[in-house]
Structure formats: C-alpha cells, structure tokens
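Revision sheet: structure tokens.
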Amino acid sequence: MKVARSEEEVSKIRDRILKESLAIITEQGFTALTMRNLASRVRMTAPNLYNYYSNKDKIYLTLVITGFEKLRDVLNEAYRSSDDFIKRSRALMDAYVRFGMENSAYYDIMFTRPTPKFDDYVGTPHEKLSRVEYTVSMEIAGLAERAVREVTGDKEGRERHGYLKDVVKIWCMLHGMVSLYNSNIISYVAQDARAVYDGLIQELLESFIP
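Predicted:
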C-alpha cells in the first residue's frame, strides 16, 4: 500500500517543480515549458506531475505571482525605511535594481521575456489566477506613482498622466540598468557597474526634485 506524502514532502516537490520550470523558461523560452519536458527534468512521470500542477499555465502563473510578490515586498520595505521622501525614493530605486540583479530569473520572466501577460488570460480558465499577478503589479505601479508625487510635489492642476510619464521614465532607466547588468553587457564599458549605477540613480532622482 502506497503511503501518502507528508505536507512537507509535497511542498518540497512543488518547489522543485517550480525551480525547474523557471530554469526551463529562462534557458529555453516559455514555449519549451511543457509537462512532458518538465516531467523529464524533475525525473517524474507526466501523470505523477499532474498530481501537483494541472497544467503549465498554472505553474507559470505561480512563478510570476511569486516574483511580483517578492518585488512588492522589497519595495514596501524600502518605502518604509525612511520618513524623508527623497531618501525613501532613493531606497525604492535601489531596491528595484537590487531585486532585478539578485533575482535575475524571476526578473527575466516578469519583464524581459515574451511571456504571457494578464490580457492573454482574460476570458480563459486562468483569468482569476492571472488577476492575482495583475493586482500585485498594479500595487507596485501605485507605489511608484506615490513616490514620484512626493518627490516632484503634488502640484495642483497637474494631470495624472504627467506623474505616470515620470514613472515610466524612471522605470525605463532602471530596467535598462538591470537588463545590461544581467546580460553582462555593461561590463564591456564599465568595470564597476554598481558604482556607475549608484551615481546615475542619484542624478536621476535629483532631476525630479523641484
């Protein structure tokens, strides 16, 4: 008689499945993530794999939700790190870049690779799960907008798209930093990328201070 696995064992197996799934996507692309390919990677039969995840979209969405939750948590911690809005904004930018560098695989599927997004799941059985990721990502965007408002001054009469334009400007620069660092391309022009980034982030922040 087969003995049921403990919750701890099941959790470890799920974690291994997610880890290997993330590796497949970052190494070979989203289309390479198939249940058959994954089963071979984790040395498990495909029918057994379905006992843990019913399909690859649930696996992918679990991964991307985890990534956005991690990012949200580090950004919230950075935002709470100071009562000074300028120091707080600097902490947010530092935290974003650090997250991208230290969690390159998650960052890759969240922002770099052509992986499915919320709109791709609207009207499908996975829309509800995908909405979790969308909600968390919008929390992050809201935090970024609030920080920009605090630094630039919540000027009366300034329309919201003005603040959002600033958010996108900052995001583009920080994303570029992370992408160049993770691809190791920046090393060809800057021996100490982190030192260069430190100065650039400070200049970027100062450009928004009235």
